[in-house]
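To the structural biology subgroup,

Please find below the input and predicted structure for Cold-shock protein, which we are adding to the shared reference set this quarter. The sequence is reproduced verbatim from the submission form. If anyone notices a discrepancy with their own records, reply to this email rather than editing the shared folder directly, so we keep one authoritative version.
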Amino acid sequence: MYFQRKSLEDLIQENTKVWACDKEDCNGWIRDNFSFETVPTCHLCLSPMISSLKMLPIISNSNKNMKSLQKGRLIS
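Predicted structure (tokenized):
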């Protein structure tokens, strides 16, 4: 039995500023507008990250100033 799949709506993509891991064998990256630090470190290997561009679907972030927020909270 074959069910015809409806094609998914094309997602609009744009060049997005991201932070990519500097280490060659690591694939870690994060969108700039979702990072808490001005120059983040890779969460996978703890190496420094470099700024670059990547074609990604558009995602809006309602919190415009993520870098001013605290990274985490201490659990007691």
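Summary notes: The two ends are 56 Å apart (CA to CA). The mean pLDDT is 82.

Regards,
Lab coordination
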